Amino acid sequence: MAYCLEQTDLNLRISYLQLSALGPGLQEKNKKIFALLLLCYNFVAMIKIPTVLVLGAGASQPFDFPTGQGLKDHIVEKLHLPRFRQRLIDLDFDKSIIHDFRDSLRESGRPSVDAFLEYRDDFLGIGKASIAVALLPFERTTTLFGDWINKRRDPDKPGNWYEHLFGVLCDGIPFDVIDDNKLSIITFNYDRSLEHFLFMSLKKSYGITDKMCAEKLAKIPIIHVHGSLGSLPWQSNITGSIPPVPYDSNMLKEHVKSAAHNIKIIRENIVDTVEFTKARKKIQEAQQLLFLGFGFHPTNIKRLLPESLRIPMYVRGTSLGLSLERRIAIRQRHESLNEKDKKLIPKDVYTFLHDYVSFNKPGVDI
């Protein structure tokens, strides 16, 4: 029991000290109860080891968002539809540039819109606008919650990893101490599905205000290294002055403009940005690094994990769908990150987190 008490973090020590207000008999009785609860707390709940999750397109795919190649194909197809083109015309893009962009993107041979735009500054504006118009309709609350009622009935479908993560963060935990979780998230995705899921889940689970939720979630940073579809309304007081873009957006012109403005296309020769600097700092401070649905593109690895960066001892990730060439490149950057040593797991994100990851005992063999 003394071992447990040594591991008490600040909020638990405060709770423990509050017992001194009780009478001697009740104080001793409550200390024993508290110590028993603390035993469970230290070994089950929350993330106490500094952990960083790195999210790629595969992390959002279970929630019906397209992957990099899928988004490119989706935009090319949608650019043939009058309604999609009209949204771009409403943003003052000429019909001729819309046509040229569609044909050039389709025939570029690039695996994603981002990769294409890195070399085509002349299409940067319409490219970002097209990404915004294409992705905003995928941001639907029902896709994060209601649709999973039916999905869970199918044993062949992977589980909801957002729900699993929320359980790790919050199950059996008072609202006041949720921000003691030592978690940071780095995402290469534009969508805001994870922060929206966490916000809604906190609000509905604890029955608290938007402001209280926002203050808690601000302590669990989500860094969009390539920008995002904009700040959500509850984030507007925290993330800046650019007009927010609501989830379940009704695609108003101002929503699309704000979303496009927040998307960042980084040229191949640019290694450093404010977001990547923040991301690398989080990685340096972490003890555990987990790659989820990440494609390990060489350019992204170069920016996120330069040779000079200290990488945490415990590194694992998913490798579902990765080519042999890409897996070899990963191993060259981090020698132990391979499938042979069970550090790269060819599973979906939910199965990986559920069956292969212990957030508070990362060294446990699997």
Which CATH architecture of the domain at 51-64 and 151-247 and 266-356 is right?
3-Layer(aba) Sandwich
What's the count of strands?
6
Largest sheet: 6 strands, parallel
Low-confidence stretches: 1-23, 38-43
Shape: globular
Q: What does this 3D model show about the protein?
A:
- The chain has 366 residues and is an alpha/beta fold.
- It has a domain at 51-64 and 151-247 and 266-356: Rossmann fold (3-Layer(aba) Sandwich).
- It contains 20 helices and 6 strands.
- The chain has helices at residues 2-6, 10-18, 24-44, 57-60, 68-78, 82-89, 95-106, 113-117, 124-135, 141-144, 147-151, 161-170, 193-206, 210-217, 236-239, 253-262, 274-285, 298-304, 324-333, 349-356, and strands at 51-55, 183-187, 222-224, 288-292, 314-318, 344-345.
- It has a 6-stranded parallel β-sheet, with helices on both faces.
- α5 crosses α9 (124-135) and α12 (161-170) runs parallel beside α20 (349-356).
- 35% of the residues are buried.
Describe how the helices and strands are arranged.
Elements: H1 2-6, H2 10-18, H3 24-44, E1 51-55, H4 57-60, H5 68-78, H6 82-89, H7 95-106, H8 113-117, H9 124-135, H10 141-144, H11 147-151, H12 161-170, E2 183-187, H13 193-206, H14 210-217, E3 222-224, H15 236-239, H16 253-262, H17 274-285, E4 288-292, H18 298-304, E5 314-318, H19 324-333, E6 344-345, H20 349-356
Parallel strand pairs: 1-2, 1-4, 2-3, 4-5, 5-6
Helix pairs in contact: 5-7, 5-9, 9-16, 12-20, 13-14
